[in-house]
Write a structure and sequence with these properties.
332 residues; three-stranded parallel beta sheet; single chain; alpha/beta; Isopropylmalate Dehydrogenase
């Protein structure tokens, strides 16, 4: 459900209100049923889910329903949604993610094939003392025991993978290595295959303006990025660059490339959100399970008003379905 005070509950209720969407798989919603019901009521949505207390043996009957809410109210106590960063909400949303991971690692009837995460507030996690991992991506990587993961954004016109993620801009230069850039290229190629592009054409951004202008504006392109591209090509990956970031996204939108590798967060996310914010999905590549999420945050400023755009959540659910439960496969 994500942060209970954000728009997560609302966009989940609205997205799964589409009968055709929810008929394609079995969905387990982890969170407070009272918060979910309140969010649904704000949009005039009648509850369509089956509710069972979290941890109840009755949850084993979940296969008979396309949407099941594992209600935390009775198991953990009710949570009051607060539309701001709050310690209680941070601890709550952090625990929800850990429980979702547990369902993926479970061998019970509730075993999950993928996770769709509602937006969390990183400040709330910090207030709750959850400072070891700055966000979903790092927490998921830790619990699944993988060292290489990447954030990949999948939209109708553009796909972008990031070489560095939630770090201060001043630290990007110190964090970039040949291996880190190569990881992003390799994981991005893997992510493209997951969404059905078997032989992706990959464009790699430079770090500096004009991709360094042959060393005049910086040497990271020749020292770090080009060697990573060369290694990827030796492995059979169709990677090209480094290209100036202010123009390469136009080529990608024109379908000359299937994926762009960006060196830092805003370099990749500004074009993604400018072009199709409400249709783009954040997918974590490198995990043993599917994980998707909307490409936006908690939106505390509009939470509780029943007017949040649920397009990105709906797209995240659909992508998770397609990746984890291919069309034609039983979702029992």
């Amino acid at each position: 459900m994500g942060d209970p005070g954000g728009i997560g509950p609302e966009i989940i209720a609205a997205a799964l209100d589409d009968r055709a969407l929810r008929a394609r798989a079995r969905h387990i919603v982890l969170g407070s049923v009272s918060v979910l019901e309140r969010a649904a009521a704000q949009r005039g949505i009648e509850p369509y889910w089956w509710t069972v207390p979290f941890g109840s043996p009755a949850a084993q009957d979940a296969k008979a329903h396309d949407v099941v809410v594992l209600d935390t109210d009775r198991a953990w106590g009710p949570i009051e949604p607060i539309a701001q960063a709050a310690k209680s909400a941070g601890a709550y949303s952090y625990r929800l993610v850990e429980e979702a991971i547990g369902l993926c690692q479970s061998s019970s009837a509730l075993q999950a094939r993928g996770i769709v995460t509602g937006p969390i507030c990183k400040e709330a996690w910090s207030l709750a003392g959850k400072t070891r991992f700055p966000g979903h991506t790092e927490l998921l990587a830790h619990h699944f025991g993988v060292k290489r993961v990447a954030m990949m954004f999948v939209g109708p016109a553009l796909r972008v993978v990031l070489a560095t993620v939630h770090v201060p801009l001043m630290e990007v230069r110190n964090l970039l290595t040949i291996g880190r850039v190569l990881d992003a290229i390799e994981l991005g190629a893997q992510g493209c295959r997951t969404v059905g592009i078997e032989k992706p054409r990959i464009a790699v951004c430079g770090l500096n303006p004009h991709a360094g202008e042959h060393g005049i504006l910086g040497d990271e392109e020749t020292r770090l990025i080009q060697p990573a591209i060369d290694i990827a090509r030796q492995q059979g990956i169709d990677a090209h660059g480094p290209f100036p970031a202010d123009t390469i996204f136009l080529d990608a939108i024109a379908h000359r490339f299937d994926l762009v590798v960006a060196m830092y967060h805003d370099q990749g996310l500004i074009p993604v959100k400018l072009i199709a914010r409400d249709e783009t999905v954040n997918m974590t590549v490198g995990l043993p399970v599917i994980r998707t999420s909307p490409d936006h945050g908690t939106a505390f400023d509009i939470a509780g008003r029943g007017r949040a755009n649920f397009g990105s959540m709906k797209a995240a659910i659909r992508l998770a379905q397609e990746a984890a439960v291919p069309v034609g496969m039983s979702h029992g």
